[in-house]
Queue: 3 jobs
Job 1
Amino acid sequence: MKIATYNVNGINARLPVLLRWLEYSKPDIVCLQELKAPDEKIPKKAIEDAGYSAIWFGQKRWNGVAILARDLEINEVLRGLPGDPYDEQSRYIEALVGDILIACLYLPNGNPAPGPKFDYKLRWYERLSARAAELLEMETPVVVVGDYNVMPTDLDVYKPERWKDDALFRPEVRLAFKNLVEQGWTDAIRKLYPDKVIYTFYDYFLNSYKRNAGLRIDHFLLSPQLDESLIAGGVDKEVRGWEKTSDHVPVWIELK
C-alpha cells in the first residue's frame, strides 16, 4: 500500500499538477493540505475521474485538508482537532481507509514568533499530542500525516543558522514534535533514511529548488502496529519543477 501526502497550495490553482502527479505516482491513499477552497469548490468530479474517492474539510482562501483513496472505502471519523471548540480553522480530518486510520493535518505556521500566531501553534501541538495519545490506545493501525510546519533537526533544513528564530524551527516547536514522536510513533522517513538530507518544501524565492535549499516539514508518524510494515518511502522531488506547481513536493511511504 502506497500512502502519500501533498500540500497542494491551492487545489483549484494546482489541479492540473495534482492530476498529473496522481497518474504519475498512483498512490493508494493521499492526504492533501492547503486546499484554499470551501467545500462546495472542491473539484470532486475531477478527483473521481482520476479514480479516487475523497472526503475533505475545506475553507475559503486558506487551510483545508482532504483524504483521497483509490479502490478503498473511506469512512470519516473526525472533522476538526478536538480541544478548542472555538477553533474555526480547517486543519484536521480523520478517516478509516481500509484497515488503517488516517489522520491528515495541516499544522499552523506560527509566524511571526513570538506572538499570537505562535501561541496558537503551540496550543495546536498540545491538542494534537492529546489526540495522538488517544489514537495510540486504539487497536487500529494509525498514520498521522501531513504538513507539520516543523524541521525536527538541523539535518531537515538548509543552513539551519538562518532559521533559529523562525516559528518552524524554534526550540519550543522542535521540542513539541519530539515529545509527540516519543509517545510511541515512528517518523517513517527518518527511519528509512536516518542520515540523508531530504527536503519536502522549496520556497518560490531565491531559486531554492534548483539550489536544493529546502526544508523537511511534511511527515509521516506511524503507530507501533505499522512500524515493521514500512518497506519504502521517498519524495517525488521532480514535481517541484513542473509548471505552476506547489512549493511543497509529494512525500510517500509504502507499507507491506
Job 2
Amino acid sequence: MSPRHALPDDALPDHVNEERERAETLRHRLGLSRRRLFAATTGLAAAAAIPLAQPAAAGTRRVLVPPGKRGIILYTVRDAITRDPASTTSPTGFRRVLEALSAIGYRQVEFAGYRQHANAEGGASLDSVEGARLLRGWLDAYGLRAQGNHGFIPGSWPLTTADLDRFKLALEIANILGLEHMGTGSDPTGSAYKADWDVAADKWNALGAIARDAGIKLYTHNHDAAYAFLLDSGPPDEQGRPTRSSGIRKLEYFFGISDPRLVHFEMDIYWAHVAQYKHRTYTAPDGSARTDVFDPLRTVRAQEKRFPLFHAKDGASNPAVPNGYDMVPFGTGDIDYRRFFSRLRHPGYHNPMYEQDNAPGADPAQSLQLAELSYRNMAALRG
C-alpha cells in the first residue's frame, strides 16, 4: 500500500483511529513533524498512515535490542515517582511506576536514587536495607530486573571512615536489589588536567576493588565534557598547570590508567554525540591547532566489555543550540542507533537504558507516555 492509497479514516477500525489521534496529540505536544513522528513510531497510528513493512524483509533482520535487554533509567520518569499520589490518577511512587513500566514491556530498570513522594507506599526514602527489600519485592512481582543505580560515590580521597561505611551500605542495598552494577551519573572528575584524572583513577580503582569483593561492577557515566581534550602538556599557566594537549581525550586517558577489572563505564550515547559535535579541535604541544572528530562507536568497540550499560538517549540535530542536539523521545531523533547497536562486537552483553532528561512535563502522564513511545521504537530496531 503506497501512502497515497492509505485507507480513509472511516474505513479503519475504531481502535486504529484512536491510536492515530493519540499520536497526533503527542506530535503537537513534542513539536515534531508528522514525518519525524511517524517514521519513528511503530504503533498502530503509524501503521495506518505509512506503508506496512514487507514481512519477508523484516524477518531477515535481527532484533538489535532483545526483549529482556530493553531498559529505562527511572530518572526519566522521576516526576511520576516523586508526585503526590493524591494529586493525580496517573501512576505515582516506585510501586505503581514499576508496574506501569512493566506493562509497557520494559524488563530492566536503572535507579537514580531511592527517593519518592512521602505519601507513596514505603515512605519518602527507600535508601535502606528495609527499603531495598520492599523495592526488590516489587521488582520481582512485576518481572523487572534492576541493573544499576546512580547513587553514592565518595567525593573524598583518601576515603573517610564515614564515606567508606556509606559506600559499603550502598553495596549491601545493591545486592538486595540484585544489581550487577553500581555507579554514578557523574564523570570521574570535572577537571581538564591530567593530575586530577590520575587522582580520580586511584580513587576509582580502590572503590572498584571494594565493589568487586561485593560481587558488583562499579561504573561511571559520561557527559560530553569527559570526551573533551586533556590538558597535559605545553607551557604552564600561572599556577603551573598545563595549557595544551597531546590530543588524548580525558575519559580515554582514564581508560588507560584505571584497572579494566575494577572500573567500568556507562556511555550516554547522546552526550557522546554532543562531544562529537563540540569537541573537535585542540591546541597541540607546539601551539598548532589540530582537528580530531570523536567517534563514540569506535571508542566502545575498542574495549566493549568495559561498557556493560548504555544510556539510549536520542537527539534531534539543531546547530542553533550549543550542544548541537535537542533531546527527544528515543527513535524520533537523528542519532543512528541502528548503526550503533548493529556494529557492536558483543551485542548481547550490553544493557541499554532509555533516558530522556526532559520527559517530565505539565501533563502528569507525559513521561510515561514518552516511555511507551520510546519502548516501541527501541523494540522496532532491526539491523
Job 3
Amino acid sequence: MSSVSTKPYLIRAIHEWCSDHDFTPYLVVAVRGEMQVPMEYVKNGEIVLNISYNATRNLNLGNDYVSFSARFNGVSRDIMIPVGAVVSIFSRENGEGMGFEYEAPPEEAPVANATLQTTSTSHEATKHDDDDDEPPRPPAGRSHLRVVK
C-alpha cells in the first residue's frame, strides 16, 4: 500500500484556519521548470501568492494541484501549482503557518505539464524558450518566510 501525503490536507486546514479568523492565507511556491504561474513575479526561484477567497476565483485546494484564477496587475490569470512545489502556507497578519519540504514531481510530470499547457486559457505563455535553465534551489536547512506587504 502506498503512502498518502498529508501535505494537501495540512494546506487546506491552515487555509481554513486563516479564513475562519479573517487572516489572509499566503502560499510560498518553489518554481521549478514549467509551472502555470506569472513568471514576472518569481523572485529567487519562489513566488508568494495570496490565496484568500477575496483574492481568488474558483480556488481548488486539491490533493495534487492548487488551482485558481487571480488578477495580476489587472489581468486575470489561471494559476495551477503542484502541491509538491508548495514550501509554506502562512497568515499575512501574524506569520503563523507551516513550512514544507519541496517535493520533486514524479516521472510522469512532463506529460502532466504538457496537458496543463494545452488546457490553459491564459493568453500569455508561461514558458520562455530562452529560460530553459532551472532556477537555483534555495539553501537547505531552516525554512525562511518573508513579510509580504
